[in-house]
Queue: 4 jobs
Job 1
Amino acid sequence: MMRYIAPVRMLAQYIPMAASNYMGKNVKEFTKELMVVIPKYIQAALDHPENGRVFADIIGSELLPEEEKTMYRLSGEGFGLLAAGTETTAATLTVITYYLLAQPTAYSRLLAALKGVDPLNLKWTDLEQRPYLYAVIHEALRFTPGATHRSSRIARDEDLVYTSKDGQVRWVIPRGTPIGMTSVINHSNEEIFPDPDEYTPERWIKEGQPNYALEKSIISFGKGSRSCIGMQYVKPLPFIVLASKI
């Protein structure tokens, strides 16, 4: 609602903490994080910029206009970093846990794939070479697409030209036109992922090796210049957690 209705989004900054107490636990926690916890970190960055806090770099950067360096704007950026770095990974691990317990065959295959792994001496270079572990995680990423809303993009300098598969229809989207789609639609495309409602790690393995070509159809982290800035740091986490716990 806040994303698509601008007046509601603008009013959110004026909701006092006292009012949030009557709006449910989730709203209360959200409001507290946005209006109390994160502003404290921002203020600490202002008071002690030498401590190397991320907000100190943002506030001191010339890339962000001065009029946008408000407490409200920076709190929003901070909440975005917090949500993107915690909820997404937690959701992926939740999906993996459920389906491994619901599908004992997949669980057994993963145990076999992790045979010989020392949970106290994990090496990322070793874990990424285990095809079934790769498959379990990428199938979970397909089920947990990160941002479920439309990811808007604008081609500012060129018209976009699309042709149907049979070559009979051609579309031209004028430059400057906002377009968007949800990752859920792409991840549920039966032409790319047969039986999309089924959790099937095997689809990610081809001739005994990870099916890296299929990764082109996964947009959990977005694509291109606007993709997730923390993808290379977050992506290994499920590998490490699974190998250490299973």
Job 2
Amino acid sequence: MPTLNHTPAFPGPVHAHWRAVAAAKGFDLIARIHDRFHLQLRCRHCSGAFTTKLFTLMRHQPLCPHCLAARRSAVAVAAGVSFLGPDPDRRGYGRFRAPCGHVLTRQFELIDRVAKGQTGLRCETCHAEREASEARRFGWERLGHCPSGQPNYRLYRHHCGHVQRIAQANMLWGQCDCAGCGRGWNAKPSFLYLFRIFLPATTDCPARQYLKLGYSAHPVKRHRHQLGLPRDAQVEVLRVLAMASGHLACRAEQAAHRRLIRAHPEAVVPAAELAGAMNVVREIYRPGLLPVLEAELDRIAAELDAKSGCM
């Protein structure tokens, strides 16, 4: 059986109206190939041959892969990279070689925006190497991205062996005291606290009651001098949980708030309601959430006991 470009020809008829449709769409119909469903076309623009389905030719506009690759190559050059080919695993993505020599996988639409100057393009490998170099200047080793998935944080190991997550911007400027061997707030003992706050009635508002979950090295000082409460406000310390360091307290508090806000959004007090009453307007909850907050602190305490072997 004859072959076309090393492709087996199919011995069926080639109808005249197929050729007419192909010509109207910018192609020459060379032959039927593989089976009764496939055709080989030649692009009249670039003279490149390619395979398409008969259905595609009759119902749609076939795309010449050679012309498409040429257009993508031109866009890639304008974006400052070299087009290597489409990504075999993801539709709409291509593989490109950056000026640094590394291969990037990006959406074609993104490369088009880069070529138009609407956005930039960053090599992850080079960026990670720069972050690792920045960390070494301050005695840290970059281990990778933050396990919690926060995009602006990375995981680092200090020269003392302590591992902690740090905001990448803080590492850039060296604002990264080690919670293991450092002397800053994040290395010193701290506390999680749970306050009940009573705000007396005013001419504009009735009496109000809120719950505040937070962390501080000095919980009493926190509510007396840092919340900005009116003089006649009352604060009841419902619970205090000791933490080994400010770093651990901050991490536990942030994780707790994420869980609480996700599970009980209706219990979060809107910032507008707190305006003028205190200088903290985030992570304040309705009094009905007290059992949930207590259970959250119980869970954190149980985790601390398990880690210290005191179960």
Job 3
Amino acid sequence: MAVDSPTGRRTQQERRERTESALITAAAELVVETGLRSLTLARVGERAGYSRGIVNHHFGSKQALVEALAHATQTGFVPGIDRIAPGLERLLAVVERYIGALGGVTVINRAFLLLWAEAATAPELTEIFRDRDEGFRTRLRADVEAAIAEGSVRPDTDPGDVAIAIMGQLRGIGLQRLLDPDAIDTERLRHVVAAQWRRALTMSD
């Protein structure tokens, strides 16, 4: 006699996760192609090869879908950073790897940059991306503080100012890359920008 085993339940969960991943990818593609305003559950379902009912079943509303997309786009942009100890080298690795990642940006990462830019005028995104940005700045500040403590960065450096400046620079480069990919040589630029920050943080006035 067949038994409804834990393995069966895991298979059902895997199917659900695959469906949600396909819907998120479809939503990201549509955001990149036509923007957030034109995103609908029906269009997402059609792009992913499912019915609108499936999209409703998984997310319930456009707002829930947008929130899921926003959270999905915010993961994994700069992998491997957590394996580096906090301090100057990790800070510079974030700068270098972030710009390097822009050279092979995926549809999910493109959607992230577009949604981030749109968050300034889209209330459904503002809080999500405000929290994300604060988390990014917090990690950057922590690296600057650790670098000051270890003596590799000038003690008169303001960690908060550096965090704001680095995040603004990285996001700005990302948006330029979206607008004019051929104008941004990410392989060269990632080394240039990291070297500039090393000099700025370690040189005396």
Job 4
Amino acid sequence: MSLTSLLSWALFPLYAVEGIRTRLRTPRLRPGTGPYQGRFEGGGTPVRLLVIGDSSVAGVGIGSLENGLAYQLASMLAGRTGRTVEWRAAGFNSATSNQLREVVVPNLPSQDFTHIYISVGFNDLKNFHSGPKWKKGFGELLYALKAKYPGAKVFWSCLMAPSGVPALTPGLAFVLGLRQPVINNIGKTLCEERGGQWVTSMPDIGRVHFCEDGVHASIRGNKDWAEHVVEEALAPSVLRLENQNEVDDEQDEMNRAL
């Protein structure tokens, strides 16, 4: 166990007191309503995108799921690549990695998704899950998704610094900030070992990126978050696949000609 992790456990009483105080004064916002799946028309073979995760996927605090992370990811991916994108959201408020693995994944449709984006980790962080517990929950979530959708490319974003979350008191943000590297480092390692790709956290986060409660992503936050993920990971993955398919088609034509 690292020194920073040990320090965070030593400061657990501060975390408990500040956490209760923050929860009592933070308003409860409802999940979004509207379409949880859809299709953006384009060219080529459809990209089938599953977005699974916590309150950001559930659209907490933003009214309509058309303002949510899944819809924005699909819309921007279609616009960036010109491909048809079929999307589905499976998100739930306060979901942790082990809840996604145990409850959500078994109830997902047996659809042949090509790309999966996971939004999870912040609830594991704020619930003070240990490194081994996060490793088990997130690691088994990756295994479950890869087992159910073996052809899909899987992506996960690193957590932003807790100090950037407006609702957190300085003391609470400090303690959680000591544990953030544990979540990120284990998450990166598991992605590399189990067939996923980790994405850097969104840069330049400000108050405008959060709802009135200072915790959940705002409409602007979801748009900027989606743009970052699409540009860094999803669009390059789709375009690489498209280029490889073109190479394979050309090779097939050459082989037939011979």
